[in-house]
Each structure stands twice: as structure tokens, then as C-alpha cells.
Amino acid sequence: MALAAVVPMSTERRPYGGRITAYVVLSCITAGLGGVIFGYDLGISGGVTSMDPFLRKFFPEVYREMKGSRVSNYCKYNSQLLTAFTSSLYIAGLITTFVASSVTARYGRRPSIIIGGSAFLAGGAIGGAAVDMYMLLLGRVLLGVGLGFGNQAVPLYLSEMAPPMYRGAFSNGFQLCVGIGAVTAHLINFGTDKIEQGWGWRVSLALAAVPGGLLTLGALFLPETPNSLVQQGKDHHRVRAVLTKIRGIDDVDDELDDIVAASIGEAKGSRGLQMMLTQRRYRPQLVMAILIPFFQQVTGINAISFYAPVLLRTIGMGESASLLSVVVTASVGMASTFASMFAVDKFGRRTLFLIGGAQMLVCQLLIGGIMATQLGDQGQVSKTCALVLIFFIAVYVAGFAWSWGPLGWLVPSEIFPLEVRSAGQSIAVAVNFMVTTFVAQAFLAMLCHMKAGIFFFFAAWLVVMTAFIFLLLPETKGLPIEHIGKLWGQHWFWKRFVSSDSEEEDRAAHKL
């Protein structure tokens, strides 16, 4: 029995039993509200910063320059204060994620989700009621705290709760929820922009409290993941009962054996971050934890997500038309993410990464080429040209939404051994926030100075990241999460780092 002793993980793959239970589905839908929160903020901030009443109240200089005729099309929104409004959230999230890592490892995924939802609830309320810049930024900081906890805990929760054969679909549900949040935000922005009294931006910001409140309330009833319960040293009978309930079968001994065996390293040393940084056997996971989130952001997607309405107004579209166009492109992205949920466990992570990367590369080159030849410092592009740009932006968003969007969260959440899983996720989230902050803070200045060349800048990164995936990422589809570590020892490059350590670890485990 798995309850009697710690059993070393077999080097052979053992498929687990179980089915997709309503209990797991409802739990993951509730946790997925953390993705809705993330997407809502991505959509709201870009739309609100393109609204005239919001700019007049908080950024009057930007408003005057936008209405002026002497400023270059590419520089109308170039304001460090305006970009600070967007990036302040991600700076707060970056700082918070390391605190969230400790909470998630020590107390579980569920408490982190509750804290994240509560902070987002407070941030939305304060942002909607803001009367000055200080209050506005306080709301943004609280939203950042919420994202720091949510993005740390929710991807881990989804990966650990999902049946192994469907882990990709469940984990990609996080990005689907991001898409749902973004589309909802864009629709709300489009509607509130019509409020003639000029306070529509307050509604947009305040409604962030709704998903935050729902997440907080729902998380109170969430079960903790079996992996986290073992990590916390809970009784194995309790863990088995949870596994039985979420898998819908009584025979869960194999899965429990592997979870318990994976916790051996945790029992010997709980300083996961130090282990990740200093031990060679974790070098592949460390590289992935840093580079996959980095590459996810330098696809250019957040530049488009944050500033799509601003970008479309740059090419001459009106305020309402730009907001409506963003609704369309975000809806395409959401549909593409939904499609990826069915494709990821059939075709694999690598295939979607490579196809999506090539698709985004072509679109970035075409968007940059059109803007370089058709949009000068003054004037506007033709209506036909604007529609073509919107089309390629939509195709680009679709490519991201079924590749680097969901997989940028899925792969880091599934590759870490249990003893360093929370620390590894904190590194991935921190890098994500760090690069997101840079993009948010620098994009408008880069657009002003590089003009259309900024799209070629992102295209160059797409070439690098696609080659990285082709050469260095092994396929993980269908593998139990506790068996993925064996892949690195079989990879042509990574085996030089992990082979000797894995053999030593296996010998030590057999002595126990």
C-alpha cells in the first residue's frame, strides 16, 4: 500500500487510472478565475488609457499632445507617467511573487488564491473610486499583489489537479480564462466609452472587483491539491481520500506513490530556490523557468494587449472604432485558445510552439512592413490599409493564443519536481512580471523612436525563441507530472547536466 512507506519513483512510466470528474472540473473553473483577473487587467488598462475623459483627468499633457497636429503619429502617447500607470501593477506583482512562493509552498495553493482574489477585489474598488494619481496607483499596486499571488498559485493548481492525459487541456484553460477576461474588458470599455458624462472609465476599473470577489468566494470552497498536501506533511490517508475523489476511482496507489516519492527531496531540504540556483540537476528547469516567460513577453503580445486601442488610434481610427476592433481581435484570440485545449494533448507542446511561432513571425513582418510604407509621421493610413492591419493583428493574436500564450504558463508549471515546484514557479512568474514591466514601460517610447521598426524587433525575437524550442525543449504531453524529470536525462543537450545527478539520486533513494 502507498500509505505504508515511501516508495521510490520507478524510472518506467506508469499510466494512472481515473477520469475527468465534475469535482475536478468545478474546482479548476473556480481557480481559473485567476486567469480572468489577469486578462481583465490586460484589456482594461489599454482601453482606459485611450479614453479622452481619463486622459484629461490624469494625463492632461498626453491628451493635449494627442489632439495636437505637430506630434508624430508614433509619439502621441509617449508619456512615462502614462506607462507607469500600466507597469506599476507588474512591479507590484514582481515583488509579491517571492512572498507568494513561500505561502504557496508552506500553506498550499488555495490560501494563495484566496489572498490574490482579495487583493484584486480591493484594488478594483480603489481604482474605480480614484480621485487623484496616488489613489489610482494604489489601486494598481493592489491589483499587482493579486496577480502576484494568483499567477503563482493558479497554474500550479491546475497542473496538479488535472488528470495527466488531459493536463495540457486543463492548464491551457488558464490562458482561455485570460482571453475571456480580456474580451470582457474590451466589451466593457466599448460600452463605458459611450457614457457621455465621462465617468465610464470608473466603471471599467471598478468592475475588476467582480472577478476578484468571485475568486475569493469560490476559493473558500476549493480542495487543496494532493501534491500540496503531501508537501505540507499531511496524513497520507487524507491525501488518498482527496485523490480518490478527484480521480473518481479507488485505485490511486500508483499516483500517490509517485507524489510521496517526489516529496523525499522536500523532506531533506525545503529551500527550493537555493536548490534551483545551485544544483546542476535542476539546470534545465531553471533555464526553462527563465527563458520561456521571457520569450512569451518578447513575442510582442503584451505591447499589443496593453496598447492595441492606442496603436489603432495611431493609424487614424476613432476612439470607438479602435475599441471595437480590439474586441474582435481578442475574441479571435479566445477562440484560438479554446482550440488549443483540444490540440495540445493530441499534437504536443513542441508542435504548437513551432507553428504558432512561425505564424506570429510572418504577421509581425507584414504589420511592420505595412506601417513602414503606409504610415508616416503625419496623416493616416487608408481605411483599406487599416482593415488589413487589423486582420494581421488578429492572425497574430490567434498564433499567440494557441501557442506561446497558454504554453508559456503550462510548460513551466509541469516541469518542476515537487521539492522545487513552488520556487520554480516563482522564478517563472517573476521573470514574466519583470519583462512585462519592461515592455509596458518601454513600448510607447520604443514606438516613438523605432516607429514601425519595433515590429521587426519583436520578429527577430520570434526567430530566436522558435529555434530554442526546436533544439532544447523535450515533449511532455501525456506524461504524469512526477515523471517529466526523467526526460532531461534522455535529451541530447540536457543529459550532460542531469545524468550523473540522477544516478546518484536513484542510488540514495534505494538505500532508504
3D architecture notes:
With 512 residues, the protein is an all-alpha fold. It contains 24 helices and no strands. 75% of the residues lie in helices and 0% in strands. Helix 6 (109-128) runs antiparallel to helix 7.
Q: How is the secondary structure organized here?
A:
Layout: H1 22-31, H2 33-48, H3 52-58, H4 60-67, H5 80-107, H6 109-128, H7 133-161, H8 167-192, H9 200-206, H10 209-219, H11 226-231, H12 236-247, H13 253-262, H14 264-268, H15 272-278, H16 283-297, H17 301-314, H18 319-347, H19 349-374, H20 383-401, H21 404-414, H22 421-450, H23 453-472, H24 495-511
Helix pairs in contact: 1-7, 2-7, 2-8, 2-10, 2-17, 3-4, 5-6, 5-7, 5-22, 6-7, 6-9, 6-10, 7-8, 7-21, 7-22, 8-9, 8-18, 8-21, 16-21, 16-22, 17-18, 17-22, 18-19, 18-20, 19-20, 19-23
Summarize the structure.
The chain is mainly α and 512 residues long.
Number of helices: 24
Structural class: mainly alpha
List how many beta strands DSSP finds. Answer: 0
Assembly state: single chain
Query: Helices and strands, in N-to-C order?
Result: HHHHHHHHHHHHHHHHHHHHHHHH
Give the overall form.
globular
Please give the largest β-sheet: none
Mean pLDDT comes to: 82
Uncertain residue ranges: 1-13, 508-512
Radius of gyration: 23 Å
Strand content: under 5%
| End-to-end separation | 17 Å
Helix fraction, binned, reads: over 70%
